[in-house]
Amino acid sequence: MNASVAVMITVALLAAGTFALRFAGPALRTRAGVPVRTEKLMGTAAVVLLVAVAATSALTEDQGAAGIARPVGVLVGGVLAWRKAPFVVAVVAAAVVAAGLRLLGVP
């Protein structure tokens, strides 16, 4: 079997599996009941996962600490997002704060 054929088969299988999983949710929603406590737990778990990814990205760089400028920029963006600022404003403000701190010599 050629390597490109194997890749195409793998992509097709992953696409079919993804479609099946995405279709199963709405299709089975009326048949399978999920307790309210489990739904709340899943919502909390999603938030915790996103915070963990953001913290890892904000605090580390190349197997070490990222310095101070990046986490402060992420914090500014997070506070603006929490305060319901438009997404573009939060991202631009975070970038400006991080760039400004680096321009001032803060690592």
Automatic annotation (TrEMBL):
<feature type="transmembrane region" description="Helical">
    <location>
        <begin position="87"/>
        <end position="105"/>
    </location>
</feature>
<keyword id="KW-0812">Transmembrane</keyword>
<feature type="transmembrane region" description="Helical">
    <location>
        <begin position="40"/>
        <end position="59"/>
    </location>
</feature>
<dbReference type="InterPro" id="IPR008407">
    <property type="entry name" value="Brnchd-chn_aa_trnsp_AzlD"/>
</dbReference>
<feature type="transmembrane region" description="Helical">
    <location>
        <begin position="6"/>
        <end position="28"/>
    </location>
</feature>
<dbReference type="Pfam" id="PF05437">
    <property type="entry name" value="AzlD"/>
</dbReference>
<protein>
    <submittedName>
        <fullName>Branched-chain amino acid transport protein (AzlD)</fullName>
    </submittedName>
</protein>
<keyword id="KW-1133">Transmembrane helix</keyword>
<keyword id="KW-0472">Membrane</keyword>
